[in-house]
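Our preliminary data section would be incomplete without showing what the modeling component actually yields. Below, a chain of 265 amino acids is followed by its predicted structure, encoded as tokens that our downstream tools consume directly.
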Amino acid sequence: MSKHSLGGLTGIEVSHAQMGEKWLDRHLERKGKSKEDFAKRLWDENVTAVAELCDDSFEEHVLPYSEEETGLHLHGINRNKGDFETFSPEAVQAFAEEWGFIPTGTITLDTPQEVKDFTDKVGETGEWNGKAVEGFVVRTKVCDPWEAAVPSSGAGSGQGSRSRGNMAPPYSPGSDYFFKIKFDEPYMTYRDWREMTKSMLSARKKQDFSSASQIAIPKSKLRRPESFAYRDWVFREMDNDPEIFENFGKGKGIIAVRERFLAWY
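Predicted structure:
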């Protein structure tokens, strides 16, 4: 299953799910295993393996992936049950090694402050272990909100009071919990440029514009001076060299367009 779909899609030569299955075959073959072996393992343990397809030749992400990083990155293994329960990072990495997937790098920190300090530091460069990263998925546990609550300054229902009812998360204490930390730069800027380009390409197909400023672009995507320059540059290049945008809507050429702009800028 991929992108909430299975198998092929009408009008698409190779779907995301089909490409993911091709990579699954490659990973398993390297370990001398079959899809039947893999399916039996998941069935016997009643779990779901969660992987991300990273293949720039098929569909580019915001940041590029090297040849060694191309394939299925195993992010997690979850129990098939109502309450969220997932394998530890160490168990996921061991599973990735056993079945030929690309393991996801991890680091263990003990407190929220350590997580903040670490991600703030990495966010200064946008790199970790010599590689550009979009951010981190933080894996933690749900605490008991009653035990973690700040003591009330007084009884009753005043501002200082806390109750189990209005603080309780929709997860039971001790259950697994994930959240993401995304870096603004350069990831969010690059993502804004990608979405801006898609909007401009779509708009130009429907109507002729004399300037880039006439195309409605959300202000949130024009937060930086470079983004205004990128918008105007893309508008000109649509006329000067339209071939570079030919497959942009299919997830290809995104990185090349961005690097071409940065070289010009």
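The CA atoms of residues 43 and 80 lie 10 Å apart. The longest strand covers residues 71-79. Preliminary results of this kind motivate Aim 1 of the renewal.
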